[in-house]
Amino acid sequence: MNIKPEEITSIIKKEIEKYEKDIKTVDSGTIIQIGDGVSRVYGLDNCMQGELLEFPNNVYGMVLNLEQDNVGCVLLGEEKGIKEGDTVKGTGRVVEVPVGEAMIGRVVNALGEPIDGKGPINTSQTRPIEIPAAGIIDRSSVNEPLQTGIKAIDSMIPIGRGQRELIIGDRQTGKTAIAIDTILNQKGKDVICIYVAIGQKQSTVAHIFNTLTEMGAMDYSIVVDATASESAPLQYIAPYSGCTIGEYFMHQGKDVLIIYDDLSKHATAYRAMSLLLKRPPGREAYPGDVFYIHSRLLERAAKLSKELGGGSITALPIIETQAGDVTAYIPTNVISITDGQIFLESDLFNAGQRPAVNAGISVSRVGGSAQIKAMKQVSGTLRLELAQYRELEAFSQFGSDLDADSSRRLEKGKRLVEILKQDQYSPLEVGKQIIILYAAVNDFLSDIKVSDIKRFEKGFLEYVDTHHREIEKSIITGKTLTDEIKSMLEEAIVEFKKIFLQEA
User: Fold this and answer.
1) Catalytic entry in 139, 296, 365, 390
2) For a tag on the chain, would you pick the N or C end, based on fewer CB atoms within 10 A?
3) What is the pLDDT of residue 45?
4) SS (HEC) of 225-253
5) Nearest to residue 320, comparing CAs of 211, 166, 152, 177?
6) Whose CA is closest to 264, among 200, 204, 357?
7) First and final C-alpha spacing in the chain
8) Burial class, 85, CB count within 10 angstroms (exposed 0-12 / middle 13-18 / buried 19+)
9) DSSP letter, residue 223
10) Which residues contact 195 (CB under 8 A, 6 or more apart)?
């Protein structure tokens, strides 16, 4: 076989031309301490805050402390089988979660992984969990209502799309119930709902999921679940993951409602992580930046400008108080970040007023500009009349004689309180709310017994639905109460009252 030297030379030249020097460098370090879900790693020179680190056994961690000679990180998984001296690799990316239409109807953990047993989520898109909030130029004012379906809230503490409204109260006062009712009321309104459970019992989250499924709300909802059995780091990142999933839809021009249940447990999880990382404790042993973890989360709720599609995220964070103390550290922090609060009171709840909304200290700072005119017309004097009723009620307990005007106000107040009561899982359309509130505010119910008010409301709304359907249609299309609608409404009230009082 005769091989020519020039042929060999040309082959070698071609191979040299094709050769690519492809050397991959990986930033790696050594574990010098591990325990309680926290690890210290030496040797990660190019590490960044919030970076994802790869531990042995396919476990990931997130960097929180950048110190002089080591980095402190929290594990986003089991620390079983990981020991001192093991090698840790830097990934060069921050924590990301999958996003997309495929997330709707699913239950996912804090890392966006499905935990509902329905198989993998078919989406290839991911977004980092920490994204800076939209700036002032990118936002537009809150000008569209987000109806909760709860009379006491839609009339006196209205919420607008893009608002952050805090739900605050002691345990077992119906905070989650208000949030779930609000989700149920978004059916058919083209709003994507995200429920983030932080530190809740698994049974509670399962019950909420079953309720949403039965009511058909999972067709437009996503549940992000970091239960009490999960580690503190997963409870800490859960609300950011939920917000990132919502931002995908907001940038598509859609409206999103997100519920953080609850941020008290979120702060507790962050405190546990910070103390284990030896960060200096401040008031109530919380670290100094506990205000910032909530402010950077809630600032991401926004109504985007028309140029950016006009999408919105409305946030309803929940805070649990101890014995009604709203002056504690975390409650005051979150009150100062949000655009108003719905305060639920144990005394009202135990007295049978449900939802137990205290209209006196509850407020919506921007929702009023999103409230429809018809609702403003009927609810204008509602808060004042309830406040007067509470005062008179306290005064009348002393047994002193009341003048005729005070007695009338007291009787009217009793009926207003009764009208504002509402069963769980039964949100009302805004048109129906306006109709029944009009009857109550304009003193049409004075000759109906307080005990019969609930029955009257149910019967009257059914009567309007069957005999005077045009009233509700006119209110919803016109969004205002004209003299013509008022006279039609008054006529319907008088008609039904005759039938009702005869039956009674």
Assistant:
1) 365
2) N
3) 87
4) EECCCCCHHHHHHHHHHHHHHHHHHHCCC
5) 166
6) 200
7) 117
8) exposed
9) E
10) 179, 180, 183, 208, 212, 221, 222, 223, 224, 259, 261
Say whether 365 is catalytic.
yes
DSSP designation for 502: H
Angle made by CA atoms 151, 153, 157, in degrees to the nearest 5:
140
Q: Where are the alpha helices (DSSP H) in 70-164?
A: 151-156
The answer to whether residues 199 and 266 touch, using CB atoms and an 8 Å cutoff, is yes
- Using CA atoms, how far apart are residues 47 and 92, in angstroms rounded to an integer? 8
Q: What pLDDT sits at residue 470?
A: 93
User: 472 and 451 in contact (C-beta within 8 Å)?
Assistant: no
* Residues belonging to the chain: 504
* HSE (side-chain half, CA atoms, 13 Å) at 36: 11
Q: Return the CA Rg of the chain.
A: 29
DSSP assignment of 405-472: HHHHHHHHHHHHHHHH---TT----HHHHHHHHHHHHTTTTTTS-GGGHHHHHHHHHHHHHHH-HHHH
Burial of 225 (0-12, 13-18, 19+ CB in 10 A): buried
* Angle of the 329-337 helix axis to the 290-298 helix axis, nearest 10: 30
Q: How far apart are CA 199 and CA 476, in angstroms?
A: 40
Which pLDDT score is estimated for 27?
85
Buried b (16+ CB within 10 A) or exposed e, 18-48: eeeeeeeeebebebeebeebbbbbebbeebe
Q: State the pTM of this model.
A: 0.92
SS3 content of the chain, % helix, strand, coil (to 5): 45, 20, 35
Distance CA 102, CA 380 (A): 43
Low-confidence ranges of the chain (pLDDT < 50): none
- In whole angstroms, give the CA distance from residue 375 to residue 475: 10
pLDDT of residue 188: 94
